[in-house]
Amino acid sequence: MKIHIYILCLVFSSVYSESVFKNVTVLDITSKSEMRSYMKSISKDLGVKCSHCHDMDDKSLDTPQKDITREMIKLTRYLNDLLNSQSEDSLQSNTYVSCWTCHYGQLQPAARRPGK
Ligand code: HEC
Ligand code: HEC
Questions:
Q1: CA 12 to centroid of ligand 1, rounded, Å
Q2: CA 42 remoteness from chain centre
């Protein structure tokens, strides 16, 4: 039953998002205002402007930065799913890992601690 509802949601969200956005293949966002606030949030997490990833004349066009970001969104989702599946009692929220967790306002996360 659960899986049926999940599939229905997937079908519905992909059909619906196609009518609002032209080229959204990973995010489950269906409204313009939600998209704007998500995009503002990841921009702050990485310390970049919209134009770092987008052609500002047409934001639906693909860019190499958008491709990397799609993989990063999947990575973040995977980590949260994994953490959520570990312990329902001790963990309180649904989102433990965000772009900020690793990026900390920088485009390139620090690979090792400073002073080494
Ligand atoms: C780090 C890269 C990155 C930054 C910075 C970024 N975006 Fe995006 N944006 C993406 C990716 C990736 C997608 C497509 C997501 C998908 O396919 O699920 C997207 C999709 C969009 C879309 C949907 C376009 C369409 O019709 O297909 C809009 C609108 C948008 N972004 C607006 C913005 C705005 C406004 C900003 C600045 C506040 C911004 N983005 C900053 C990566 C970025
Ligand atoms: C688990 C840690 C982690 C999380 C979470 C994470 N990233 Fe990353 N990200 C990395 C690492 C590591 C790199 C590679 C940095 C390098 O090349 O030095 C990277 C690289 C990137 C790059 C390419 C940077 C460049 O040099 O051009 C973008 C864009 C990016 N991440 C966006 C995101 C976004 C958006 C999110 C949230 C949806 C996110 N990342 C979440 C670890 C993470």
A1: 21
A2: 8
